[in-house]
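Thread amino acids onto this structure.
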């Protein structure tokens, strides 16, 4: 019988692709959802669902029972800053600890944690960053602080519980096709480009990665013995939103005109989505995925393919209407 893998946050954008990747490779999969009535309908029928919430101890013992591996993909990622940073930090940190305690008690062999380049790049400028770098908390707003503290909490936990192996995936901006009509926060940026919600394109920089490639990285980090004890950046070269728009404009009728920074800041006074985008202005995302390529044998799709596949899926689920060239 194949190994059983628990994937947390099964209704999420990335988790859905991880589950599909695991099922395609012959694993039995269990997913956690906040409540069973919210179990996703688009995932393979053989997936089992268990109710467990990051904010409560209830359900986690049942969730990890009989699992050889756990992939912890659940973590809040809002489109704008919360009123208080603890709205993000507490679920991320406390939820990670809850899961790890349950996994260790159940004899789980390895946990693969979804972190982020946000736990690496804040407070650093002017150079390409690697897995040896950590974000400086003083330079972080709520989201990167939550990712940094949650990942550090995970490493601290396994240092005290060496019987439990840990590997960490640090993705960049995750884009790629959606599996249903709901949108993840990062894919929302592509929908905004296609929909023309703004008259010009904000000059924001991201190290992008295809959601399907991130899912593969999680499976590889779960399977390969030497991945234990390592973090892996999974992201491509820095790409700006205007550059993404120019690629998409080769097929779709969308604007490619860059937006002056002051316009976005002004819009942020009145629009929550714009206000959320302001925090990304003048920020670099220069990271290296060489370690994942060398140690995991991981590869990335061309960004052009990812962008067009993202757009086609959004159009296919009627998430956006856009004219063709």
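Threaded sequence (325 positions):
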């Amino acid at each position: 019988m194949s190994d059983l893998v628990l994937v947390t946050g099964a209704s999420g954008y990335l988790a859905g692709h991880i589950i599909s990747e695991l099922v395609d490779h012959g694993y039995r999969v269990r997913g956690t959802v906040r409540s069973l009535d919210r179990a996703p309908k688009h995932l393979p029928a053989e997936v089992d669902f268990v109710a467990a919430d990051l904010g409560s101890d209830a359900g986690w013992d049942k969730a990890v029972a009989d699992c050889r591996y756990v992939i912890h993909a659940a973590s809040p990622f809002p489109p704008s800053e919360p009123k208080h940073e603890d709205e993000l930090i507490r679920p991320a940190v406390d939820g990670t600890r809850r899961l790890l305690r349950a996994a260790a008690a159940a004899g789980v062999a390895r946990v693969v944690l979804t972190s982020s380049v946000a736990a690496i790049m804040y407070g650093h400028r002017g150079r390409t960053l690697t897995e040896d770098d950590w974000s400086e908390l003083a330079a972080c707003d709520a989201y990167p602080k939550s990712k940094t503290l949650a990942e550090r909490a995970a490493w601290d936990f396994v240092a005290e519980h060496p019987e439990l192996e840990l590997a960490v995936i640090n993705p960049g901006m995750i884009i790629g096709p959606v599996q249903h009509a709901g949108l993840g926060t990062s894919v929302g940026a592509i929908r905004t480009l296609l929909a023309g919600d703004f008259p010009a394109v904000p000059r924001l920089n991201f190290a992008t990665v295809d959601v399907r490639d991130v899912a593969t990285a999680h499976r590889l980090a779960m399977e390969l013995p030497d991945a234990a004890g390592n973090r892996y950046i999974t992201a491509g070269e820095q790409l700006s939103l205007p550059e993404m728009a120019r690629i998409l404009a080769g097929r779709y009728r969308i604007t490619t005109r860059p937006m002056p920074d002051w316009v976005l800041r002004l819009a942020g006074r009145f629009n929550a989505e714009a206000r959320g985008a302001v925090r990304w202005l003048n920020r670099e995302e220069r990271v290296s995925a060489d370690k994942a390529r060398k140690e995991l044998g991981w590869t990335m799709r061309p960004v052009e393919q990812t962008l067009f596949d993202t757009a086609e899926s959004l159009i296919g689920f009627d998430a956006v209407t856009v004219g063709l060239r």
